[in-house]
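haha ok so turns out i had the wrong file open the whole time. this is the CORRECT one, sorry everyone. sequence first:
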Amino acid sequence: MVNKSANLAIITNNTFEATKAINLDNYDISSALQTTLEFNELIAIFSSKISHKIPHSAYVYINKEFDLEVRSGVFTRHSCNYALKVEQQQLGELRLMRNHRFSDTDLQLLETLLCCLIYPLKNATLFHQALKMAYTDPLTQTHNRTSFNDAIKREMSLAVRNNKSLSMIFFDIDHFKSINDGHGHECGDVALKLSAKWIKENLRESDIIFRYGGEEFVILLSDTDANGAELLAERIRSSIESHTIAYGMETIKITASLGTSTLRDNDTAESFIQRADKAMYTAKNKGRNQVVAGR
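then structure:
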C-alpha cells in the first residue's frame, strides 16, 4: 500500500519574499531555475538541486492545463504530493517518492524549497500560455495555420528519420457559403466549432488537427499509412454526416469532402500538401460528401 502525504502548497508574494530573506543558501536553486522556461527542465533541475536536502528516488509533475505529465526515476512506496498555486494561478502538481516515509521535518523543508520553484513555474506557464494563444485558432480551439507550417516540417523530418509513415487529411465543409448566406455567420461559426469537435472525437492522441483557413481543416497522422488515412477520413466523413446542428428553430445537416495523401520519398512539404488538397477538391467535383485518396 502506498503511503501518500497530500499537501497543498499555496505560495503568496509575502511568503516568497520572507522565504528568500531567511534562506539565502537556496539562491543557487533559484538561479538554476531561471535558466529555462520548459516545465520538464524546471522539474528536473529542482529535483537535482534538492536531492541532497530531501533525498528522493523519483518525481512526477502533472500540469492539466497543458496536458503535461513529466516523470523520472524509480517509483517506490512512499510519496508526498503538492498542488502548486500562486496568486490564484494553478501551476500543476508535484509528487516526490522514496522507499521510506517523509518526516514532518522533511516536509517543512520541502515546502520552503518549493518557494524557489513557484515563480519559475509561473513564468513558464505565462510563456506557454502565450505560445498556445499564438498557435491556436480562437474559434475552433484547434491549431492554426502558423502552427501547421511549423508542424509539417517537424513531422516530415521525424517520419524520415524514424522510417515511419506520415499521412495527411484535408477536410472541407460542403456548401459552407450557403450556411453563412442562409443562416448567418453566427450559424457558420457554430458549424465550424462543431465540425472541429466531431473531428477530434475520431482522432488519436498523436493526431494533430489544424484550421487551415475558412472552412478547411487539415489533420496530420503520424505513423499512419495510406490505408489508415483513408479509413480515418471515412470515419470522420461518416461522423459529420450523422450529426445534426440545431440552430434557432431550424435543424441543419452538414457534410464534408476529404482528401488524403501519404508522404513519399521525394516529397517536399508543398507536394505533400498539394496532393491532399487536390484530392479534396476532386471529392467536391465528384459530388461532395466523400473521401478521395491522393495517390
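DSSP finds nine helices and twelve strands in the chain.
again sry for the mixup
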